[in-house]
Every structure is written in C-alpha cells, then in structure tokens.
Design brief:
The complex is a heterodimer of chains A (324) and B (241). With 324 residues, chain A is an all-alpha fold. In chain A, 77% of the residues lie in helices and 1% in strands. In chain A, helix 2 runs antiparallel to helix 10. The two termini of chain A are 25 Å apart. Chain B is an alpha/beta fold and 241 residues long. Chain B is built from 10 helices and 10 strands. The termini of chain B are far apart. Classes of the chains: A mainly alpha (324), B alpha/beta (241). Chains A and B meet through helix 8 and helix 9 of A and helix 2 and helix 3 of B.
C-alpha cells in the first residue's frame, strides 16, 4: 500500500514539473527528451536487462518508427497516432527478423551483430531516396494543431505525451518482470541449459521479448519524429546518439530494474545538455570530453548503476532506525 | 508397461565414442541405477535422453512418443527432466523462485508457487525458501535441483549425483524420498557414486563403461558379474597368466 502511495506521489510530481517550466523555453525541450529517452531505455531494458542480451542496434527500430509514421503522414495523410501503431508493427517485425539469427549469439557477439544491423538500416535509409528522402531527411508536414492530428503549437503537450509513454512502457516492463515471463527470462539469463531442461522454450521467450522491445522502441520513434519535426537517417539510426545512448542510460541507472532507465535518463540527458550549454563556446569537443569524464567517474563510483545508491541509502536508514 | 525405451543410442565427440549402441527399456515405476567408472558416459547419456545432446544414431521413446531430436523443453513437457551433476541453479534467484520457475511448465504463477512450496517441503528445504540459491551449501543446492526437477511434474526423473557430499542422515532422507517418489508412480534413473546407496534403493542397475552397456541386472547380479568387477578393479593377476 505504502508503495502505491509513493508511486502516485512520484507521478504527481512528474506531472506538475512541466507546468513550472517556461512553455516556449529550452528546458521544457530538455525535459521532453529526458522523458522520451527514459522510455526508450526502458524499452531497451526488456531485452538488455531482463534477457541480458546487450543490444547495440535499437536505433534500427527507433528509426523505422520515425520513418513509418512520417511517411504515412506525408504520402497518405494518416494521423501519427495511427502511424505509431503501424510503426510498432513494423518495428516488431524487424526485431523478429534480426532476432532469429542473432539471439543464439551471446555477449559481445550479440552486441556486435545488432550494432551492424543498426548501421545497415542507416545505410538503407540514406540510399532509398524515393521513400525516405535520402540523406536530406524528412520534415514532418505542418497540420493545423489538434490532438487528433498529433500537432501542437507548444512543447507542453509533447512533454505530457512523453511522460505518459514512459509510464506505459515502465508498466509493461514491470508487468513482464513480475509475471511468468519474468521468471522465465531470469532463468534463461542465469542458466540457459537448466532453463530448457525444466521446460522453458528459451528461443520463444527470447523472441517474444525482442519483438515487444523492438515494437515499443519503434512507437517511441514516432513520438520523437513529432517532437523533432525534422530528422535524417544519421540522427534516428545513429549508433552513438540512439543505440549506445539508450543502453548507457539503462546501464548507468541500473540494468534490469524499472527505476534504472528513469534515473539514468534524468542524469545523462540534462547533464549532457548542460555541458553543451556551458562549454560549447570553448574548444571544439570540450563539452563532449567533460561529459565523457563525468560518465567515467560515475561508472567508477556506481558500477552497478544509480539504483544501488538507493539500496545503500535504505540500508543506512535501517541501521539508523535500529540504533534509536 | 514400458515408459522409456532406448535403442542403439550412439554419440561420438571427435575421437571419443561417448555412447556406443546403448539399448535398454525401463518399465514404469522402477528405480534404475546407472553406474560406471569416471568418464563412462553417464552424464552424456542423461544429457542425450533429455535432448541437450543430439545422438548420432538410435531411438528414444518416452511413453509412446519418439523424442530424439526434440528440444529439452519439449521433452520436459512430455514428462522427462534431469538434475545437473555440477548443479545449475539460478544462483541470483531465491530458492523458491528457482523451483517456482519449473512449476510454470504446467501452472500459472500462483499455483506454481504452491507447487514449489510442496516440492521444497518434500526435499526438506522449506525453511530456506527465501534464501538466495547461490548462498546455500553444495548438498543443499543439489536438493534444490531435485525439488526444481520435481516441480516440472515429471513421469521420468533423471538424478545426476544428488547425494554427492551428503552426510549419512541426509543420504537416508534422500533415499527415502526417492523411494516415496517411486511409490507415487515416478520412474527414476539415478547416477550415484555411493555404491551402498545405489545397491540399496535400485530395483535394477545398469553398468556403463567407455560408453558401452556392460551389464544390466539386479544389484546382486551386477555385483557378482566378472565383467563389471574387471571394469572397476582391472583384471586379476591370475587372468593375465
């Protein structure tokens, strides 16, 4: 019961924060992207955390999502809300296609294979000009502002949509983690042969997880396209800016936990923006260098993620209680 | 009624003939011991039966289904599973979760949890249900293996050295448990190095050496079989003359 109150309080606070920011300002944009990246890292967390398969190719699904809804809107005038589901279907299909050959790989080999897949998608989007617009990218066409058309004058609605997306993806993550599938995934993660012998169809469970993860990532790609308004292949299919970043967010926050991606995104996205803000006037690359140094320091300090900070705080609190 | 029927089972790893034309049948409700010197192929044999290793040739029938080439999870669903000799628990999960996960083969989470507690009770580990599996002692972990295998609801259970490192009291408990499982209608194949335990509980003993079935009979017959004695102790000086 106490847990539910705490959860309701966190969501209430999160719902108020956007109202406190300047609706046409810079920080509401940072907040929107923070929430969006938290949701993306949570989608990654399904395959990367629960199944312990470190994907470095999630940009593939993200980009498929951004392109699917935008092309449907451009060519057929279909609302991005509907386009988002088409994006999810295509993203899930792509995840299935890539998962069948790669999921038998483990560790570094899986990471490298998925990295390659993301890059292949980037190259395809760059050369398939009639469909994707090629390296020039796509602009999301302006439609009269309305909720049904997923078009707004301000960023505020986008911030709330990103918050809702984060809550939904996190709920899906928790539902899977706590249910039968969560038990099966933990078993596979810890000992695949033993999992098979006690009756778990390890291939099927991993494929299901990959498809859900890929579909959610693609749907979030649609949200990104609607906020960003313009994107090109090198942005949405970027290994560094999307694939590695979502993995980094989840790992830094606490991989395999529901809070991990949220904590990770709350740290990484604002700090990265702040570094760009403070140091971009200096030498070229200085802000990235400082950001990298901060990341290294944080990983050395909390190698198992920010989530362990919570555990040690709780332990300290419990000791304090006992002393009294 | 024959529940497990194995014919001409062979498996070669490079230059090593791990299993060589193994043939035998087990009627339902028997406890069958499987003995043999180290490297005789006992663990390979179990792994082949449950589908972790694909044999080069031969047939395996469980009840009336041919299971050669099936994945282990299908074999488990049909009712045969095994424990792991070197213990393959989900170390970062609780003892209860280890066993519960096996129960999910035939039940939802709530029922699987009840089943898991029953299985833990049977192996005498109910009191450590909430400990991490990795924190248990080796003999305890072997018993969690047993509870986990049991929770899949098997008809045929292959136990690979679950009595290793047990003290005499614990060993007696496990022997009683194996008998009570047989009385419930289970069929058990047991690999064990402890001869007294094997001789006491098994209705029948198979002897494996260099992947070949050397002998098949009651404890008495096997113990007096000169071929078996030779495999274990070598040829006597007299025979060399």
């Amino acid at each position: 019961m106490k847990k539910w109150f705490a959860l309701a309080a966190v969501i209430a606070v999160a719902a108020v924060v956007p109202l406190l920011l300047n609706p046409t300002g810079y920080w509401i944009r940072v907040l929107t992207f923070t929430l969006l990246f938290a949701a993306m890292a949570q989608a990654w967390n399904l395959i990367g955390g629960l199944a312990n398969q470190t994907s470095l190719g999630h940009a593939a699904f993200f980009g498929i999502g951004a392109y699917t809804s935008t092309i449907l809107l451009l060519k057929f005038g279909i609302s991005p809300w509907l386009g988002m589901f088409a994006a999810g279907a295509l993203g899930g299909l792509a995840a299935l296609v890539i998962a069948i050959p790669t999921l038998r790989l483990q560790g570094h080999y899986f990471a490298l294979a998925t990295l390659a897949f993301g890059e292949v998608m980037r190259v395809i989007a760059n050369v398939w000009t009639p469909l994707t617009g090629g390296p020039g990218g796509l602009s999301v066409p302006f439609t009269p502002p309305s909720f049904a058309a997923y078009s707004f004058k301000q960023l505020l609605p986008h911030a709330y949509i990103a918050l809702a997306a984060l809550i939904i993806v996190t709920a899906i993550f928790e539902f899977i983690r706590r249910g039968a599938m969560g038990y099966r995934l933990r078993a596979i993660r810890e000992n695949q042969a033993a999992a098979e012998v006690i009756g778990i169809d390890t291939t099927k469970v991993k494929l299901q997880t990959a498809v859900i993860s890929g579909a959610l990532m693609a749907m979030l790609g649609t949200l990104y396209a609607q906020v960003a308004v313009f994107f090109d292949p090198d942005t949405v299919f970027s290994a560094a800016a999307i694939s590695i970043r979502v993995a980094l967010i989840a790992i830094l926050g606490g991989v395999g936990t529901a809070a991990g991606p949220i904590l990770g995104a709350l740290f990484i996205i604002p700090v990265e923006e702040l570094m760009n803000d403070l140091f971009s006037a200096g030498a070229a690359g200085l802000s990235q260098l400082i950001f990298g140094a901060i990341l290294i320091a944080v990983i050395l300090w909390r190698p198992r993620g920010f989530i362990t900070l919570w555990d040690s705080l709780r332990a300290r609190f419990a000791r304090g209680e006992a002393r009294r | 009624m024959t529940i497990l029927d194995v014919r001409g089972l062979s498996k070669r790893f490079g230059g090593l003939q791990a299993l060589s034309d193994v043939t035998f049948a087990v009627p339902q409700g028997q406890i069958v011991g499987l003995i043999g010197p180290n490297g005789a192929g006992k663990t390979t044999f179990f792994s082949t039966l449950v589908g972790l290793i694909r044999p080069d040739s031969g047939t395996i029938k469980l009840s009336d289904s041919s299971i050669v080439g099936m994945k282990p999870h299908k074999v488990a669903a049909l009712g045969m599973t095994k424990t792991f000799q070197n213990v393959a628990l989900f170390a970062e999960s609780s003892v209860l979760d280890n066993v519960l996960t096996a129960g999910l083969l035939r039940h939802d989470v709530t029922t699987a949890r009840e089943q898991a507690l029953i299985c833990l009770e049977r192996v005498g580990l109910r009191s450590v249900a909430h400990k991490l599996a990795g924190d248990l002692s080796f003999p305890e972990r072997a018993r969690v293996e047993l509870a986990r295998a049991l929770c899949t609801g098997p008809k045929v259970l292959l136990l690979d050295e679950v009595m290793a490192a047990l003290n005499p009291v614990e060993m007696q408990e496990i022997m009683d448990l194996i008998r009570s499982l047989r009385d419930d209608g289970l069929t058990l194949l047991v690999v064990e190095h402890h001869m007294r335990a094997i001789m006491t509980i098994c209705d029948r003993i198979l002897v494996l050496n260099f992947g070949k079935l050397l002998a098949d009979g009651t404890a008495q017959q096997v113990a007096n079989d000169p071929v078996v004695i030779e495999a274990y102790l070598g040829r006597s000086a007299e025979a060399h003359r």
